[in-house]
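cache lookup: miss for this entity combination. No prior model stored, computing from scratch. Input as submitted by user K.M.:
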Amino acid sequence: MSAFCRRMTRLTAIALFLGVGWLPACVDLRECDCYQDCQKRFGGMWSVVCKDGSCVKSDVVKLGESDETQKVNCLAPDQDEDKAVLQDSHNYLVATLLPVGGTFDWLGKPMQAAAELAIEEFNRVGGIDGRKFGLLRCDTAGDVKRGTAAARFLVEDVGVKAIVGPAFSGVALNVAQNVTIPNGVLTISPSASSPAITDLADNDLVWRTVPSDALQGKAMAALLRSLTQTAGLQRVLIAFKGDAYGRGLSGVLKDELGADSGITLEELEYADPGDATQGFDPTQVAAEIAGKQDPAHDPQMVVLIGTSEVYEATDTTGNTVNGLIFQTEKQWSNTLATHSAPILWVVSEGGKNDRLMEMLDALPAAEGNPADLAGRLFGTAPGSLEAKNRSSFEQRFIAFSGYQKLEVYAPEAYDAMYLIGYLHATLDSSSGTYSGVDLVAGMPSLTSGTVPIDIGAPQISSVAEKLHAGQSILIAGASGVLHFDAKGDPPGAIDFYWVIQAPEGGFTYQSKLFMWPDEDDPQLYQQDPTAIPVTELPHPYPAN
Amino acid sequence: MKERKWTMGRFVVALAYAIAVFGLSSAVAKPVAAPTDEDFAKVEALYAEGISYYKAGAYDQAIERFKSAFRIYQEPNLMYNIARCYEALGDVEQAIGGYSDFLSLPEGNPDARQKATEKLKALMRAREQARAVPISPGSNQTPSADTTQPGTTRPGQSVVTVEAGPSVRHASRWPEWTLIGAGAASVVLGGVFVYLKDQAVDDFHAETDSQKKQDQKDAVNQFHASSIALLSIGGAALISGGLMFLLRDVRISKPAPNGASLQRPPSSLQWQISPWLSRQAAGGAVRWEF
């Protein structure tokens, strides 16, 4: 072979080797840039998140699978259309963090349905600037640890920037302090009413559409003072749940009553049923309350500040048992002859529940349901300020969710999700990424307008245009006009409710507006003393 | 001597044949060194001496020189010259044998082949006639179709220039086959790793556990790197071997010292049909060298 051929062959071999050598040494295995990409790849597997370009199961979820106390449970969309919205990285991603599983699902499910209705209305009109809202729904089970784990999943793994929830004040505070505030995520709670949230150092990231319990504490104090004057009330036992809600409301009540109310106050804090580590035992708590009914104490009224455990609870073995009211009545009936007379119950919004009405109708007297109990049950609960958009929302809510009537805190949850939706219209559309801090920067634009705009799908496009143009608006929500005080608390109203016989049989509750914000100054409140139907205690006691 | 011309079709067919026969590691033929420049110089010198002896009428010496040259380099035209010398000596049998050998070889000067054919016919006719006519004692008659006196040349008869012909023996191709075989095997193995890489990629995309996913990613990269290395090395070896295979026998023209045309043998990838004629028989030979 000639030298030329040998040379040519060598050059060809070298060129081929080098040419092939420029091929990438590694295969591009990048699967995702965001959570939505993984949802597209693994549709229906909500726990698969994007980490370093790969779709993997969330570490937070994996931890929860081995540790039940931190179990994370979420729901992917059911409908194909909603799945498609969640899987599109062009769309926004928001979440609900509510107690939709376990003991407190009665509270969380209606709120979640209301939030879903709001999302459905936004997406029906094409979202904001052509970007719809994908919704991820997670369960707190009313538990601080599980709620915090779910929040970590949403914030750190999924990357949501705005959350409706949590529902309970204790969960909301823990989630805010440990997860959402450090990560710049906005939360709007429809029901966390603890006064502790008002003064939280939150970088403006924690909001709520429910008034602070400071107002309900004012209302309860007004009720007690009224009864002192009209019915000789002198001795009151305040039994409250050992969480931020119970401690907060009872604290405000005591502060409002003051030292010169003429009422002897006793307190009983019981374990938080939502915290498994506290070991809540309804029978034991009822025994402690009933034990107060002796000649040395003899409270004439028990102010019960709690949630569902007031009528139905879970005992230490995990069985569902009658709640604090019935168990205490049962123990009292055993000691009635020697100790006491029946007393008045004043319950917070936990007693304003259909399940309590069912139990009043169904339970026999031997299980702590004497015939006169319904007549001794009263309570205070957040009320609605305006009925205008509430009734139209109620119709849409019933048609959408399948509930028979408007459930508690559903209007607040609907309003919260609408706020989040409109806040996205205040974002700078040229920027690709945003945070909760960017969202909340637009809150003044939503709350400083002068003429309220009705909440609902027909107004979404026009409101978005106004916000893009830099105009301020004011929303007339389903729970009232959405304006907030300097600390981010909305004004509210308090209803006084009591139990009556239902026309169709059984029992129901009736309510009347008792306290409401002044029209000229929402920071001031007016009250209607005639709202309280109690003119005397059932069995007045002489003063000690 | 005409050049072999390579068309794209011949190249593709040759390359396809080479790739299809992968796995061969060595050729059967015993390696024989191709003639070097020094050999050609010797042939040139012997040829020149032979011509000188032929012109001087020293046919025996001329035959010896031409045979020596033929041993070094099997140029068919040398065989013609040997036959010519025998004819000049009057050795009919040797002349017939020489011309027959010349015609049985491929290549060779076309004019010489024509003349050799005619001479062969004439010599054989003369031999037959000689066998038929008794030779009287003392007669110096020798059958000769074309007697050339020492030192003379018949009018119209030219001295055939020694021209180099194609080599009848070719060097072994074991280096080329080794490269082609190893390259093809490497490419096949590279293809296997490409398949394994694709399988690992599918497993990677289907996995959601972070640790298992990382393991799959490592496997993908390992398979990918291996396939790249094998394909590149194999491809380079295949192309190198193929090029070496095809370009081994390229003819390059080089002028001889005495003005005669001395050419390297052309590429031997060709079909050759050679008619031949001998005392006993006649026929043709089909030859395909590669």
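stored under new cache key. The beta strands of chain B are 253-255, 261-263, 270-277, 282-289.
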